[in-house]
Amino acid sequence: xxxxxxxxxxxxxxxxxxxxxxxxxxxxxxxxxxxxxxxxxxxxxxxxxxxxxxxxxxxxxxxxxxxxxxxxxxxxxxxxxxxxxxxxxxxxxxxxxxxxxxxxxxxxxxxxxxxxxxxxxxxxxxxxxxxxxxxxxxxxxxxxxxxxxxxxxxxxxxxxxxxxxxxxxxxxxxxxxxxxxxxxxxxxxxxxxxxxxxxxxxxxxxxxxxxxxxxxxxxxxxxxxxxxxxxxxxxxxxxxxxxxxxxxxxxxxxxxxxxxxxxxxxxxxxxxxxxxxxxxxxxxxxxxxxxxxxxxxxxxxxxxxxxxxxxxxxxxxxxxxxxxxxxxxxxxxxxxxxxxxxxxxxxxxxxxxxxxxxxxxxxxxxxxxxxxxxxxxxxxxxxxxxxxxxxxxxxxxxxxxxxxxxxxxxx
Length: 411
Description:
mainly beta; 18-stranded antiparallel sheet
């Protein structure tokens, strides 16, 4: 359901304050998680900035048939603090079958060992709950250039799976804990505080579905040893996104190049799959692989100490229409993705685990993984976008392919 309100502003302001409220059941599908059901609300306050907005609030409560439960809220405003874009989010996730394929893409994927109750095997899972709180701030330095600062809190609780029908000792996680690839002080989870600093260059003509411009950002996330667990690190994240109008707004070429890695210190394993971002376009932040990064690959298929990825697609608007007081359009997006580990995580430990040299592991791990597919988009008032995408990896070892029904373009 979608409701469109036009509310007169106060007597001292002759502008029209325009609100758009979308209240919808959350019904979607993700091949990695199953069918999703729940509810969400997306509330936009445009004022006189349409199609940009002054403030946005998004809330969601949902569950997947694969077992994951998720509660999420996000607030984004360009007017809460004058001259500063402010983004807050808070999430709580419980996943009894969180996907874990080891590190650096080295573990072979064997379909018969994946969620097989005949043999009581769920090799590629552990149980995880996560609390995530993000606060990001951006302010203007020059035209199209912004500084970035932020603070985040993460808490992970991890254990063996405890679902009836699966043997908790037959998982890769349990095996790697026993072999000390995953150290005892990190095996059951971790709490982290991260401090963020960097810069953004942004010339997009809109945020939700740009048809022209560049959006690039680079920043560091530093995590001091606040909790006395011995882990501290600095990570860098760099993103370059380019939107090329090939036929006005009707046909747009878009690509996204990204790199993320540890540049100093040592990070616990549970934080390595976090994909750092300034604004959550999807509620999940795990990768590489899955709906957020390299579509079609199994979720979390590639986890390294650093990794790079590419998303490229053509965005074609098929037709536009007006319905129930709203403006809509239908679009399609053929896509091509790629990703690779660029530096090993736990190289020495994995060399002992697999009985190979670190050099051989590096040669095996530092190879690109590719996927391709296509999607459909249904957009309401430019900003609320329902997305359905299908993608298949080029390598059978990366999974059989995946379907995602989510919100928003991936970038």
